[in-house]
Every structure is written in structure tokens, then in C-alpha cells.
Design a protein that fits this description.
The structure is a single chain. This protein has about 140 residues and is mainly alpha-helical. It has helices at about 5-20, 30-35, 40-50, 75-85, 110-125, 130; strands spanning about 55-60, 65. The chain has a domain at about 5-85 and about 125-130: Winged helix-like DNA-binding domain superfamily/Winged helix DNA-binding domain (Arc Repressor Mutant, subunit A, Orthogonal Bundle), CATH 1.10.10. It has a two-stranded antiparallel ribbon with strand order 1-2. Helix 1 (about 5-20) crosses helix 2 (about 30-35).
Length: about 140
């Protein structure tokens, strides 16, 4: 499993909103400038976050984006699953995957399942607020 730029940038956007928002809307252009992310790329990421209620956005003068919750209420696993999809280490464990015909005799499947659980549990134990700390 490799987290793509989409997932990594989504986390950077969320951190930026948490650090700079204070409940106010932040223009996409400002986020792009601070994070060194192209507007075109942000135009792909922010709608996913908005449609899923992670952030809210308004258009027009004074518009922009802001968090819908406190930073301590966002699990990193939640954000990454929205932007990356399933975090499965192998395709047979992905959500909606066809059942593997070899699953009964697959000697590696239990290991992959455990790794999938460990990854999910860990990412769900880290909160956006944890990433705001600079220690």
C-alpha cells in the first residue's frame, strides 16, 4: 500500500485549515500557496472532502473552506479512506473485491488480514490534532 499524493495533500489541506482557519473560511488560493499545491489538484481534492462532510465550502467573495469539526474529532484513517479508498495491502482484501478462489488454502491471507487491521487501527488512532503538534 502506498499513500498517493492525493491522500498526502488532503492531510496537508486539513492541517492547513486546522492551523489557519479559526472557524473562518480560507480561500483555496491561500491554501494552495501555503502548501505548494496546484489549484488544479486542490479542485480535485476539496470536493471529495466537502461531499463527505469533512469540510464545508462556500463560493464567492469571502468564500473558501473550513473544517466542520474540531481537529481532535478527525481520524486520519477517515480522511485517507475518503481520498485513497480502501487501505488494503493486497487487492483480495479491498472492499468489494471478488472472493479469491485460493482463499481457503492461501497461507499468506491471515498475515495480510492482520496487516490490514494493524494499518487501519493505527490510522484510526491518530487524530488531526495529533498532527498539529510540532514535537
Amino acid at each position: 500500500m502506498i499513500i498517493s499524493t492525493r491522500g498526502r495533500y488532503a492531510l496537508r489541506v486539513m492541517i492547513d485549515l486546522a492551523e489557519n482557519g479559526n472557524g473562518e473560511y480560507i480561500a483555496m488560493k491561500k491554501i494552495a500557496e501555503r502548501q505548494g499545491i496546484s489549484l488544479k489538484y486542490l479542485e480535485q481534492i476539496l470536493p471529495v472532502l466537502t461531499q463527505n462532510g469533512i469540510v464545508e465550502g462556500i463560493q464567492g467573495k469571502g468564500g473558501g473552506y473550513r473544517l466542520t469539526r474540531k481537529s481532535e474529532d478527525y481520524r486520519i484513517g477517515e480522511i485517507l479512506r475518503l481520498t485513497e479508498g480502501d487501505l488494503a495491502p493486497v487487492s483480495c482484501l479491498e472492499c468489494g473485491a471478488e472472493p479469491c478462489v485460493r482463499a481457503q488454502e492461501c497461507r499468506t491471507l491471515p498475515m495480510w488480514k492482520k496487516l490490514h487491521d494493524i494499518i487501519g487501527d493505527y490510522l484510526d488512532s491518530v487524530f488531526l490534532s495529533d498532527l498539529l503538534r510540532k514535537d
